[in-house]
Specification:
Layout: H1 3-42, H2 46-74, H3 77-91, H4 103-135, H5 137-165, H6 171-181, H7 183-199, E1 214-215, H8 220-235, H9 239-249, H10 263-266, H11 269-294, H12 297-306, H13 309-314, H14 319-347, H15 353-381, H16 383-411, E2 418-419
Antiparallel strand pairs: 1-2
Helix pairs in contact: 1-4, 1-5, 1-6, 1-7, 1-9, 1-11, 2-4, 2-15, 3-4, 3-7, 4-5, 4-15, 5-11, 5-14, 8-15, 8-16, 11-12, 11-14, 12-14, 12-16, 14-15, 15-16
Length: 420
Amino acid sequence: MNRKKHMSQVMLFIVLFGIVSLFSDMTHEGASSIRGAYLALLGASAGTIGFISGLGELIGYSMRYLFGKLTDRTKKYWPMVILGYALDIAAVPALALVGEHGWIAACLLLVVQRMGKAIKKPAKDTVMSFAASQVGVGKSFGIQEVLDQIGAFAGPVLLYLVMLFKQDGTAYTVYSTCFAVLAIPGAITLILLLITRAKFPNPERFEPEPKEYVLFKLKKEFILYIAGISLFAFGFIDYSIVIMHVSRNFTSLAGGLAVTSNVVNSGTLPLLYAGAMLVDAIAALLFGILYDKKGIRALVWSTIVSAPFAAFVFIGHSVPLLLVGIAMWGVGMGAQESILKAAVTGMVPKQSRATGYGIFECSFGVFWFLGSWLMGSLYDLNITAMIVVSVTAQLAAIPLYIFSARQQQNNRKKPYYEKS
């Protein structure tokens, strides 16, 4: 296969996998746009929502270490990806089947959905890294995130339309209809995934095998990087808490958009999330390209931009500040989805990359869980304290990113991995 044909196949794979992610994100991000308000409607408290959001992330991330190790050991990339997607997708429309007071059942389904992500993510990110390593990891993960976020934008907009046209029922029936409709993009996701697998049964062949086997070790740059992203995860407030706050405290938006606790009549909560996902997509591509030029230091800039979002969202009732805060939240998510994964590709050898992603995502998830639990509890006790903890934790990650980048530069002068 000549170089030009090889590169065209690489890009085709990246785009196809991105389209799979588009419909997947349309499904579960559509659900995320109303998840917090739905749980509150079913009877869950702010502390419970924070706990469940964090628990889902804990399971979804911590189990990735085990599934990453399993993926590296078996090299069964596609079976892990398909099984994970199937669980992830099926759990979302199942939310339509819980009763009007079924917040416990809804919480369990959210945990199942995160377990599906735990199974698929190390394998998915690894096969993506095989292709990304050929055309630029920052740009590649950025392209995939753009496609992801087109879906993440379209999902909430779809639910907005459902709410707009279905106003003849209780809040519960409208929400359950929304979750049922999400079965459509979910089914498309699985069909496209099987098509992609049929066309590219061996994506590991995109990246050449190393001339010598190298043993992955937890070097200083990787440890510093993990510490930094863990602080970021701890301080980054889950959107479920953000949208719950908005549904409780905002009665109108400029330009005719209404956000009230009566979500059924306004139907605009999904549009706020759609806007955040649009910002996410743009930020992912821009910071992904910046990563290819500046490395981990790109995280410094994205963190400076996004870290203060909680102050804009949770202080006062200013609609312009709310919109700015949600946009800043989108920047943080975009950088998280592109740069954080791209950095692992450059730090972990091909043979152990799923394990590397598992370690990274396990630590990220543990601290996301702890942070979400704490933020949800602080919301009920003292919102100002919640904001201070959130902003401080994210900014505290910046020195660790800088130290990691310097260590990586120093290691380029000598072998980063030790031969086994």
